[in-house]
Write a structure and sequence with these properties.
Layout lengths: L4 H19 L11 H17 L16 H15 L11 H18 L3 H9 L3 H25 L1
Keywords: Membrane, Transmembrane, Transmembrane helix
Protein name: Cytochrome c heme-binding site
Organism: Methanocaldococcus fervens (strain DSM 4213 / JCM 15782 / AG86)
Amino acid sequence: MRISPLVAGLVSGFVAALLQALFKVFPPPAYGICIACHTRDLVNWIVNNAFGTSLGLAPVSKVIPVLTVVGIFIGALIAAFVHKEFKIKQTHNPAIGFILGILVINFALLMGGCPVRETLRTAYGDIIAFISLIAMFIGVVAASELYLKRNI
């Protein structure tokens, strides 16, 4: 059985809205699918509950963790297996990839979120989010240019 992305998105959105209304969970504006923020909240929730700390969480994550990141990971893994596209690839230097990943997530949290959240905040009319989206675009283009020139 094949499910189109449109049908999957519509069903997911409807179920999310239904569950939000049913459990009266109201996340902050533009918190929809923010990989950086949801990862931060998941890690902070685990650390808070395991060690009794009080690391910062979004109000929606105080009682139960937001498992968006886990769901996206599992969904992508299942889709890759179903479509026979799953391949394990060896990176050139795993340590550099790990460090770059840490930098990306930290810079995303410093600027207020990942590109999806920045786009949502821009749609809400947030000028700072718009400026950070432009800066992110310029940074990606500049870094890509430098990388392509160095590696070609």
